[in-house]
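does this look right to u?? aspartyl-adenosine-5'-monophosphate version
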Amino acid sequence: MIDRIHTSDVEPDADEVAIAGHVHEIRDLGGLVFLIVRDREGLIQIVFKEEREPDLFEAVQDVGAEDVVRVAGEPLESDQAPGGVEIAPTEYEVIDEADSPLPLEISKDIEVDLSTRLDNRALDLRKPETLAVFTLRSELITAMEEWFEDEGFVDIKTPLISKGGAEGGAELFPILYYNQDAFLSQSPQLYKQMLMASGYEAVYETGTAFRAEDFATSRHVSEIAMFDVELAYVDDHDDVMDVQEESLRYALREVAENAERELDLLDVDLDVPEDDFPRITFDEALDILETEYGHFPDDPTDLDTKGEKLLGEHFEEQGHPAFFVVGYPDEKFYYMQDVPEDDIASRKFDLIYKGQELSSGGQREHDVERMVEVMEEEGVETANFEFYIEALSYGTPPHGGYGLGIDRLVQKVADLDNIKEAIMFPRDPNRLEP
Ligand code: AMO
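got this back:
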């Protein structure tokens, strides 16, 4: 490996050190050149003085923005330098030159529209603020996985290529699989339930789901990072919500503690929901929307984007950034339990965080006969689900679970306007590269 340490590890008045990274900024003040070098951990200032190191001073005249360089030298305390330390160089080497002009400025705070940023994503990803989003994202996923590992959930991987869809036909991406038609997976739903029938008891998956929706919103993408959970022997959907609530609280706490630098860079004051998340019924949600905001969702069986946002405001004012809406009406979704006797229509719930739906879940129908009845009522082609129906027919414990959109979670935690900013290389109906 090339001999170097991270910029954040450079201590003033230490012995000679070497760092390497991209040239973030060049300031030429006559007999003095300031080079700000950037690596994954931050920025460091190198001061080239004509009088002190004439050869290196001469060499640095040719440096260009975003060149990859390595510098060794003596770290000195400096009030003006980022991090309070600068390096007086004794060695300087350009490892790789960057073409110029750059299609995107990395160091300057110039407003660039999202489409240009995504067209030049590899460069955009170099920006410290963009890197901060993905460091946060990594922290969030790791913390979430840590919680489920500690609680004894089994890490699973379900297939991404399937014969049919779990969530409905219109949103499937068809592919050619050898000589037969197949689809990209919309959700691990059927497989995680089959694993409940197989006795795995509690599983989680950090996976990918594909949705061929024709959207143009700031909260939809075609390729989604999904965190799926399923657990057996639940009494009801409250047990599932408990798991979601505790795991999310843990992940947010970890991020608040471990990603202070990133949160600062993004100017985010992360509000960890320490109190119990309110759980309101769908009817109560409609009631709040009607009486407080005079808002009626177009589809009376679902909350619309505006409804979620307004409910978010309502609960945020009461100190609850996260809450559940439980029991959707007429939710005849074959895998969800219908429970009219509970006075709620179904054991389905959505989690809303900062005014946006983050996850959907519920208690499932484990009685195969009832499930097939609903499928037939709803016109679902049971032939496409034989493998699933059969798997559940040999004894299945009561179970439930949910799918959480990781990209939406990152969007909300990092306070980003558009979900695509939370994805390294996002896919939407108009974007297939980079
Ligand atoms: P659902 O379809 O509601 O439920 O998806 C779960 C969560 O995934 C995210 N999500 C999306 N994010 C970005 N772009 C999209 N196009 C998109 N579609 C969905 C959302 C959403 O809440 N099988 C069920 C889960 C379950 O019941 O276990 C399912 O997939 O955050």
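Residues 128-150 form the longest helix (23 residues). idk if thats expected tbh
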